[in-house]
Amino acid sequence: MIWIPIGIGVFVVLVAFMMYNSLVGKKNQVENAFASIDAMLKKRYDLLPNLVATVKQYMEHEASTLTEITELRAKATSGQVSSDEAVELNNKIGRAIGGIMVAVENYPDLKASENFKDLQRSLNEIEEQLSAARRAFNASVTDYNNAVEMFPTNMLANMMGYKRRRLFEVTEKERENPDVKSLFAA
Amino acid sequence: MKTMDELKVFYESDLKLKLGSFEKRRKKICAVMLVTVILFLMLLAVVAIVFPGLRQPPQGLVFPGIIGIVITVGVLWFVSRGFVQDFKLQVVQEVVKFCDPSLNYSPKGHISQHQFQGSQIFKHHIDRFSGEDLVSGQMDKTAIQFSELHAEYKTTTTNSKGQRRTQWHTIFKGLYFVADFNKNFSGRTVVLPDTAEKLFGFLGKKLQEMNLSRDQLVKLEDPEFEKMFAVYGTDQVEARYILSTSLMKRITDFKKKMKSPIYLSFTGSNVHIAISQTRNMFEPRIFRSVLDFSLIRGYLEDLQLFLDIVDDLNLNTRIWTKA
Q1: Which residues pair with B143 in a beta bridge?
Q2: CA distances, B53 to each of A115, A123, B49, B63 (Å)
Q3: Which residue has the higher pLDDT, B96 or B210?
Q4: Closest-CA distance of chain B to residue A59, Å
Q5: Helix axis angle, B16-50 to B62-87, nearest 10°
Q6: Distance from C-alpha of B135 to C-alpha of B101, rounded to nearest angstrom
Q7: pLDDT tens digits for B231-252?
Q8: In this predicted structure, which of A75-84, A174-183, B227-236 has the lowest mean pLDDT?
Q9: What is d(CA B316, CA B323) in angstroms, rounded to the nearest whole number?
Q10: What angle do CA B268, B263, B265 make, to 5 degrees?
Q11: Of A139, A137, A130, A138, which Cα lies nearest the Cα of A41?
């Protein structure tokens, strides 16, 4: 008869141990996914000097945007920014690159150059990979949040001090459609 | 894309003559079959008369009956073999060339077992592998190859009397398509029909996560896509790089167009698509006229359906580092 409470006890311990490991695993997966975003951002930083150099000779009117990109990149890679600041910097870099790509329409020589075409392909690829990394991050945060908030793992999560995390979101400013005319303005 | 009118013109000018001679051959084959069947029935009648003992339990006639059917099918196969081969080489080949002159058609060729197994869509051990009707070529920037394939495995059971019975089970039968994918990637991502989620909902997803025979489960954002498919991949970020929001939508639309189960795999720089189908394509008809325009139209429609995959999945958009 004594085996029943012992059996139940063992079962509960096993379940608790599985839930604990699952929570830790999900938390680590979020860190992992965040690191992937960082890796993709670094790839983008590496492309930026090439972009500025290729475009500078042709695009006289875009000099200010190019300077902005160089400055933003320096700041982002300096290692002295907080993660929130880094996110904002990277959003700005993204917008600046987008602006250059649209403005290229005014410079047919540049658009046709092989250097630029290769660069454009690399930039397209890095943007897609960055988007993929952000989606993967959001998926792992959703998984983690589910575990932290759903029964029965929420009890254990509370005890472990695990809290809900924020998804990677587009800011209000980015949600506005870009004013293409202003991007073309000299 | 060829229109029906262009096909009609082609049919009238080029094909009708060839089809005419094939129709004559087909009629001869039918005549031979008819004679065979009549001869066999006569033989059966003779046997029944000469050996009245066999008639008493009518089951006695079943054994010679089965032999007769086997012989009839054997004769049909033997006599029509040459016909089917010639028809494919002369008629189907013409239709393929009409559709796109750069395409190559090989009636006996098929996608290799190595490629089939390499995609990791179907992981079962294969005991018998066959295929036919290989079409290959280049659609603008995308190299493609497709053929019919039939992969099977066998089980041998020994019943109580010690007799061994071999049963064949189909792993996959249908059309298998391989194309050069428009992005560079290094791992493997497999997209399978989602049966568990349909049946078991949330629990189904849990079961899929625990599937040890497959790579990591990748949970994607498109709800319609997620309902139809379960995705397993070697890398979470790469799987999402390949399966962009637009590609997921395109795959969903393609599945709706096909109406039969589809399986995809992204491996080794290519996309593999397996479309389950029971019907046999690009076959001539033995017991119905081959002069029928709808037969030729059917071939073209089938061909076009698969060539359109390149556009359906936007494979010619090459804006990333892969040319």
Answers
A1: B138
A2: 92, 87, 9, 14
A3: B96
A4: 22
A5: 170
A6: 12
A7: 999 999 999 999 999 999 999 9
A8: A174-183
A9: 9
A10: 10
A11: A130
Interface test with A, best of B186, B237, B319 (most A CBs within 10 A): B237
- Residues in B whose CB is inside 8 Å of some CB of A read 183-184, 218-221, 236-241, 244, 319-321
- What percent of chain A has a predicted confidence (pLDDT) above 70? 91
pLDDT class for B303, splitting at 50, 70, 90?
very high
Pairwise CB contact (< 8 Å): B240 & A36:
no
- In A, minimum Cα distance to B317 occurs at A121
On average, the pLDDT of chain B sits at: 88
Instruction: State the nearest Cα–Cα gap between B219 and chain A, in angstroms.
Output: 7
How many Cβ atoms are within 10 Å of B46's Cβ, its own excluded? 10
> What percentage of chain B reaches a pLDDT higher than 90?
51
User: Mind telling me how many Å the CA of A130 is from chain B's nearest CA?
Assistant: 8
For residue B33, pLDDT beyond 60:
yes
pTM for this predicted structure:
0.85
Residue A178 above 80 pLDDT?
no
The torsion angle over the Cα atoms of residues B107, B109, B110 and B113, rounded to 10 degrees, is: 150
Q: Are B218 and B231 in contact (CB under 8 A)?
A: yes
DSSP 8-state symbol, A46: H
DSSP A177: P
Report how far apart the first and last C-alpha atoms of chain A are (Å, whole number): 87
Structure tokens at B148: 């019919």
DSSP assignment, residue B103? -
Residues B45-74, mean pLDDT to the nearest whole number: 72
Question: Is residue A48 within 8 angstroms of chain B, CB to CB?
Answer: no
Q: Averaged over B172-191, what is the pLDDT?
A: 95
